[in-house]
Amino acid sequence: MELLDPTSEISPVRRARKVPPDKIAGLTVGLLDISKPRGNIFLDRIEQRLADKGVTVKRYKKPTFTRPAPNDLSQKIATEVDLVIEGLAD
Amino acid sequence: MNPAGMNEGFVLVAKRDCPTCELVQPVVRELVAGTRPIAVYSQDDPTFPEGVAGVRDDRALEVSFRLAIETVPTLIRLEGGREVERVVGWQRDEWRALTGLNSLGEGLPDWRPGCGSKSVEPGILDELEIKYGQVPFQARRIEIGEHEDEFEAMYSRGWSDGLPTVPPTRLRVHRMLKGTARDPGDVLGLLPPDLQPLTVEKLAINAVMAGCAPEYMPVVIAAVEAALSEPFNMHGVLATTMFCGPIAIVNGPIARAIGMNSRGNALGQGNRANATIGRALQLCVRNVGGGRPQGVDRSTLGTPGKYTFCFAEDEAGSCWEPLSVERGFAQGSNTLTLFAGDGVHGIVDQQSRTPESLARTFALSLRGVNHWKLAQGADAILVVSPEHERTFKAAGWDKARLRQELETLLLLPAEEVVRGAGGIAEGVPAAALGDRKTVPKFRKGGLLIVRAGGDAGMFSAVIAGWGASGPIGSTPVTVAIKE
Fold first, then answer.
1. Where are the domains of chain B?
2. Which residues in chain B have Cβ-Cβ distances shorter than 8 Å to A4?
3. Is residue A19 part of a domain?
4. How many CB pairs lie under 8 A apart between chains A and B?
5. How far is CA B104 from CA B98, B112, B377, in A?
């Protein structure tokens, strides 16, 4: 389907991604384990590195990597952290 | 070359679903058997006319569209690749004259009217214009993915006020543009806050999304013209931390013509024109102007009227002069008045049977606009219901008399409204009061009175205006609605 743009067209058609923060100190970072084997080992290490930098870390885990995160988990993460790091593969 | 791809001869367009086309089948066979070339097009069935070889299939209606066929059968004569003559329906003498065959159609009736061409059936013509007519659009085209939900796509692009929007396809926008004689490329003005050009086409796109019917376009254009006028100050209305949004009041026969509601629940939900005209204006402000809540729209609380707020004055049921006439237009004019206002505050008075008593009720309620101790800041609309108007009518009070009485009743005692009075810090600054004993609640011309509402109920309403009225903020603007 093709739609006609209702806007003033001062933004590009391809929407820009959200700009990542230039520093993470002082932010709360979520670590999302998608339940792939050994993802926790990777994320444990990341947590340790972040803690060394004084970053508050919260851990989350999807029930299974085969499906999108359940709504309540997505909403919980969105309300609790400033950014999320996710281990996408094993 | 003409659309049939021939230089000389005849083009016939017919459809099976037409008794006149059926009637002339022997004539068509006679023409096909003759010496002159002929192209026979069928709009609905390539096996029709029966007994004719090489009937061309025009179920896509491209040739019918390009030849501007309105009636079938239509017989066209070509010379040098150009149409020189056409005859519609069955008219024996004219068919004979066009073909030069003096015995054509012997035994058939002299005359039978044709049937409507499939290419001009309702809805079809618009589609054909898009498909074959090269309708130009200035707006950028946004491709929605095959597996993407178009409604979700519009939300995710930020085009919506929070409610679903109608996908602005080329066909829908094309149809919307037929609601106005204005050129799609006409620039109506620079829409705040981004001061981006609002063309008639961009307006039509947003009107589609808002759910408008094409016949609302003149009213939507008027709303935008009023919003873009300097005295209305759309930028300020949008950017203020106060509540207000644009409120449109429509006067004149167009309100009934497009089915607007001025009667029961006139200020509420349930009427397409009321609901979508106001919304189209607000979607333009959002999408073209770039005005969004928590962006340039700094409203602390807002008001539900910022989704849409548009209604018509009930002129037919009222004994009063309509708002349009009060504001300088001729009786029966189609006008739109745009007012920067907040929400609806109900006035309940089921006991007053004299105009004096009811006017006092109105005055008390109007005094509450913004704050009981503030004056001259906001304008207001007083919406008088039929059962309340009846009391004034019986006593011979016209709108002007009511306004005059209200102005007197709304001379607020300085000692009551001065800052600090009554133990309330808010109020009129002493310096602004000077040595006056009273101060008018509203600036001159700041109280609008309209008649609307259902037959039953001794309830009227105050619609408070933006706390910055007149030249320092927004002035109500009335414009003519042009076809």
1. 9-132, 151-416+435-480
2. 137, 139-142, 168-170, 173, 201, 205
3. no
4. 67
5. 11, 15, 83
